[in-house]
Design a protein that fits this description.
- The chain has three helices and twelve strands.
- The protein is mainly beta and 159 residues long.
- The protein has an eight-stranded antiparallel β-sheet with strand order 1-5-6-7-11-10-9-8. Strands 2-3-4-12 form a four-stranded antiparallel β-sheet, with no helix packed on it.
Length: 159
């Protein structure tokens, strides 16, 4: 497959904020289940952590200031910036870390290349947490397990 990840990756990231299974960002810390072998940590614009396996990219980010109080739908639309022809395939609410999150599956294009997106947005403790996965079109199921583990293993706390 065309290395979709190369279009998304900006630079190799250091693990500076990842310690003992937690990502630390100022007064926030959240639990991270890292993807298995074959996934490599990379820099990904406006995200705390991201991984690439040569086909898909998964990422997680927390924003604790300057986001206002938009709905989960509006926050999800923000994750679609840079994609074109985004079409919602499925959407549902999911419980996550004691809150209700909004999970969405989209088909879209990135620089004219068809992709599928799996997005989950959650608000907790004054922060917006978003999880994303970009996969090649038609290959949506292939790399879901590491993304699902990342989401299911998530827990956040303010210190």
């Amino acid at each position: 497959m065309r290395r979709l990840a190369l279009a998304l990756v900006l630079a190799t990231a250091a693990c500076a904020g990842l310690r003992d299974g937690y990502y630390v960002k100022g007064p926030l810390r959240y639990r991270v289940v890292e993807p298995p072998a074959g996934w490599h940590q990379v820099g990904f614009s406006d995200n705390d952590l991201a991984w690439d396996n040569g086909r898909s990219v998964i990422s997680i980010n927390a924003t604790c200031e300057g986001h206002g109080d938009p709905s989960l739908e509006v926050l999800t639309r923000h994750l679609l910036f840079g994609f074109t022809e985004a079409t919602l395939v499925e959407r549902k609410t999911e419980p996550l870390d004691g809150r209700e999150g909004l999970w969405s599956h989209y088909q879209a294009k990135l620089d004219g290349v068809p992709v599928e997106l799996e997005l989950l947005v959650l608000k907790k403790n004054g922060c917006v947490h978003d999880f994303s996965r970009v996969a090649p079109a038609g290959d949506f199921e292939r790399d879901r397990a590491p993304f699902t583990a990342l989401v299911q293993g998530f827990s956040a706390e303010r210190t």
